[in-house]
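Quick one:
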Amino acid sequence: MKKEDVKNLVEKVINEKVQFLLNRIDTFQSSMFKQIEKLKDFDELVQFRMPDELSGRDDDADAAGAIPILNDYVKKIAAANNQLVLIGGIIDGIKHFCDRAAMFLLRDDKLVGWKGKGFSGRDGQINDEDLKKVFFSLSANTILKNVIENRKSYMGEPVSKPDDFLIFNRLGGGKPQKIFVLPFFVKGKPQAVIYADSMMDTPIQHKVIEILATVGELSLDMLPIRQKFLTKIKTQEFVEEAEMEVKFIEHADEMEKTSAPAKGNDPERYARVIINDIILYNKKLVEDGIKNRNLYEVLKETLLQAKELYMRRSSDLLYFEEQMVKILAKGDRQALKGYNFEVYR
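Output:
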């Protein structure tokens, strides 16, 4: 066998293997998308049965009364589409079950304030926004460092480690009565600390807080999948909208070929047919466009195509612009702001 023949044979085998792998990848990708489609109704992910120990009175909480609030925040956290909303939901939820709540993120050799709730800015306290300026070095022996290292939560007196006074000095407002501190895990590794305290005899409902933190951890782990899924949905919506526009043009073209005008050219009737087709294939966009008074903005390409289609049959633009206002915008010309009316006044 000639050298050139060997080379061609090797290239052929390699190309076949590459194509085989590409086909396998396509098959796997299609399978994954089908599995992701099953997650479309994310509400199903937050339907849960409350543990029996939370259905009655606990040592530190009347948990039964906390269930509606807990349920609302679990849904909010699970439905979050970015990290800021997700973490905000966790801390906002926790604040319902203590006086002050905060999250500190692990950054290199320190814990940095990220989100706070309940810090009033009065009586020596910082405010919620000031929490972002607070940080604690991991060289200091605080309970914050301890829960990160031991991967265990702490519930009890505010001073348990030699440097805990740093926490209360920087948060202000004096020493709390009780504190609850727990590590926050991302993909199995502690990446933050959640801090909750009681300043005025408010019980810290630590079991409820643990549930919110756990839901937050799971939701954060799933967030990349959720974001990819939502992107796919948006892409599909765009494709469907484009397909509707194609159907509209095809339908109008067919009508142009087959319909017999009632009165000569009858541009008014033709304009009504075109405008009604736009409404038929873009119901949601039309409804929102009328409500927000931005019809032309959301349907710009469709309207310009419709105008071009109309002018193939009639040069009298008055009827088209008139039907746009009367039928499409339901008489509200301002809903078509941005469109350059050439004839209709």
